[in-house]
Amino acid sequence: CGKSFRQSSALKSHLKIHTGEKPYKCKECGKSFAHCSSFRRHQKIHSGEKPYRCKDCGRSFNQIGHLRTHQMIHTGERPHSCKDRDKSFTRCSYLRAHEKIHTGEKLHKCEDCDVSSESSHW
């Protein structure tokens, strides 16, 4: 892929993307991970551990990234903006879903028939 790394350990870690190697397997649900850090973060889902607490409202999260996204509710920050409309979002995934409105792509398709919808609330 052309990527280079200063440390051999970083290269070894990156190569797992290409080989599909996922040596860390969750005993609770069977999901596998390429990196130990991702595996440890996943384990918090099963343990119920939520060490990251919002100082504004007290809500707790199992991942620091989830806390940071949540805190945007309090700050009003919406860093992901639509180029076509005056609309912005707290998460990149929300923006990507919104952008599909402009392309006409449907987000949710029934598995039993050909009906599809932009909304998950048919």
From TrEMBL:
One GO cellular component assignment for this chain's record is: nucleus
Instruction: State the compartments where it is located.
Output: Nucleus
Q: Does the keyword Transcription apply?
A: yes
Look up keyword Nucleus and say if it applies: yes
GO MF terms held by the record? DNA-binding transcription factor activity, RNA polymerase II-specific; RNA polymerase II cis-regulatory region sequence-specific DNA binding; zinc ion binding
> What UniProt keywords apply to this chain's record, in alphabetical order?
Metal-binding, Nucleus, Repeat, Transcription, Transcription regulation, Zinc, Zinc-finger
Concerning InterPro entries, the annotation shows: Znf_C2H2_sf (IPR036236), Znf_C2H2_type (IPR013087)
> Record's Gene3D superfamilies?
Classic Zinc Finger (3.30.160.60)
Known PROSITE patterns for this protein?
Answer: ZINC_FINGER_C2H2_1, ZINC_FINGER_C2H2_2
Ranges of residues in domain C2H2-type: 1-23, 24-51, 52-79, 80-107
- Short name of one Pfam family: zf-C2H2
Family in the record: Belongs to the krueppel C2H2-type zinc-finger protein family.
Q: Which PANTHER family match?
A: FI01424P, ZINC FINGER AND SCAN DOMAIN-CONTAINING
Identify this protein by name.
Zinc finger protein
Q: Which organism is it from?
A: Cricetulus griseus (Chinese hamster)
